[in-house]
Design a protein that fits this description.
The chain is built from eleven helices and 13 strands. It is of the alpha/beta class. The protein has two domains: 192 residues, 3-Layer(aba) Sandwich (Rossmann fold), CATH 3.40.50; 133 residues, Glycogen Phosphorylase B (Rossmann fold, 3-Layer(aba) Sandwich), CATH 3.40.50.2000.
C-alpha cells in the first residue's frame, strides 16, 4: 500500500490551499496517497481540484478582518481565545485522522495544531518572522513556539539572495530543522497571445475582500481596455457575468486561471505571498494593493516597490491612474529553481 500523507492548508484566503496543489501533485507522482484536510473555501477549492482524492473537514478558525486598518491587529488579538480553541480542536482531530486513516506523515501549511507525535510532521510557512508592528518580537516568538512541535519546517523560498520573502522567511534564530524548498506554484509559463489588458485577482478574508471588490468595480467602469475580474469566491458552480469590457468570474479552476494569467498583460491583486510566487513563475507585471493592516502584505508590497519590481499603494489611495506607473517597473521573475520533492519526501516519509 502507498503511504498516506495528510496535507492540511490553512483556510485564510486561498493562497495556502493553492500552493499545496504542486505538493499534492508531487506526492502522487512519487507514489504516495495524499489525504486533504482543511475547512471552508480552502477545502472546497482542493476538492474541486482533486475530486478523486479523499478529504476530511477540520475545525474552522473563522477569522475575519477589521474594516478599519487601525483596528486590524487588535481584532486579531481579540480573536486569540477563539484561535487557541480552534488549534486545540484541530490537534485532537488530526490525531484521530492519523489513527483512523493510517496516516504515515503530515504536511501542514500554517495549521498550527495539525501535527502528531506518532508520525513525521512538517510545517510549511514563509513567515519565520511574523511582522506585527510593535509586537513583532512577541508574535514571532509565539509562532516559532508552535512550529517547534513539528519535526521540520519547510520555507517556500530560496535561502540566499535574491529571494522573494525577505525578512519574513529568513532568520538566524530558529531551533527547528528548516529547509528552503524553493518557491511553490501550481502554474507554468506558456507562450501565448495577450488577450486581456488587465486581470484582477481577489482573495482573502472578509470584509476586506468585498470592500476591495466594490472599489475596483467602481474604478474599472472608466477603464478602456479588456478586463477579466476574478472575485475569489469559491462556490458550487462557476458563474460568469459580462458587463461591457468586464468579464467577471466568481472563481476559476487552476487550469483556466493559469491560461488567463498567461494571456493577460497586467495583474492587479493583493500582495499575498502565494500570488507573488505565482506571478514570479509566470514572469508577469503587476500592481499590488495589500490588505489594510496586514503587516506581511504591506511589507512585501513595499519591498517589491522599493526594489523597482512592482508598484503598489494602499487600498484607500488606489485610483485607476495608478496603473500607469506599471511600465516603470521591471515586473516579477524567478527562474532556475526546481523543487526536489522526491528528496524532501524520501528524507522524512
Amino acid at each position: 500500500m502507498s503511504k498516506r500523507i495528510l496535507v492540511a492548508p490553512l483556510n485564510w484566503g486561498l493562497g495556502h490551499a493553492t500552493r499545496c496543489i504542486p505538493i499534492i501533485n508531487a506526492l502522487i507522482s512519487n507514489g504516495y496517497e495524499p489525504i486533504i484536510a482543511s475547512d471552508g473555501v480552502a477545502l472546497t477549492l482542493l476538492q474541486k481540484e482533486f475530486p478523486k482524492i479523499a478529504s476530511v473537514a477540520l475545525p474552522p478558525y473563522n477569522v475575519t478582518y477589521a474594516k478599519n486598518r487601525k483596528h486590524f491587529k487588535w481584532k486579531l488579538i481579540k480573536s486569540t481565545p477563539k484561535l487557541l480553541w480552534a488549534i486545540k480542536a484541530e490537534k485532537k482531530a488530526a490525531q484521530a485522522i492519523v489513527e483512523g486513516l493510517n496516516i504515515s506523515g503530515i504536511i501542514s501549511d500554517n495549521r498550527l495544531g495539525v501535527y502528531s507525535k506518532t508520525v513525521p510532521s512538517v510545517f510549511i510557512t514563509h513567515q519565520l518572522n511574523v511582522l506585527s508592528g510593535s509586537t513583532t518580537k512577541l508574535s514571532t516568538k509565539i509562532h516559532q513556539k508552535f512550529i517547534q512541535q513539528f519535526d521540520e519546517c519547510w520555507v517556500p523560498d530560496v535561502e540566499d539572495t535574491p529571494n522573494l520573502s525577505g525578512t519574513l522567511g529568513h532568520t538566524n534564530a530558529f531551533e527547528i530543522p528548516t529547509k528552503y524548498i524553493g518557491p511553490l506554484s501550481r502554474f507554468s509559463q506558456q507562450e501565448c497571445n495577450i488577450k486581456n489588458d488587465l486581470l484582477v485577482l481577489l482573495s482573502g478574508p472578509e470584509p476586506q475582500r468585498t470592500l476591495l471588490e466594490e472599489k475596483l468595480l467602481e474604478e474599472l467602469k472608466h477603464y478602456t481596455g479588456k478586463v477579466v475580474f476574478v472575485k475569489g469566491l469559491v462556490e458550487k458552480e462557476q458563474n460568469i457575468q459580462i458587463m461591457g469590457h468586464l468579464t467577471v468570474y466568481n472563481f476559476m479552476t487552476s487550469q483556466l486561471l493559469e491560461k488567463t494569467i498567461n494571456e493577460s498583460a497586467l495583474v492587479l491583486s493583493r500582495s499575498g505571498y502565494t500570488t507573488i510566487m505565482d506571478l514570479s513563475k509566470l514572469g508577469k507585471k503587476a500592481f499590488f494593493i495589500p490588505t489594510p493592516g496586514q503587516f506581511e502584505q504591506e511589507y512585501l508590497a513595499k519591498r517589491l516597490t522599493e526594489d523597482g519590481l512592482v508598484p503598489s499603494c494602499s487600498q484607500t489611495a488606489f485610483t485607476l491612474d495608478k496603473l500607469n506607473t506599471i511600465d516603470s517597473f521591471i515586473g516579477l521573475s524567478f527562474k532556475g529553481f526546481e523543487n526536489n520533492f522526491k528528496a524532501l519526501f524520501g528524507d522524512l516519509f
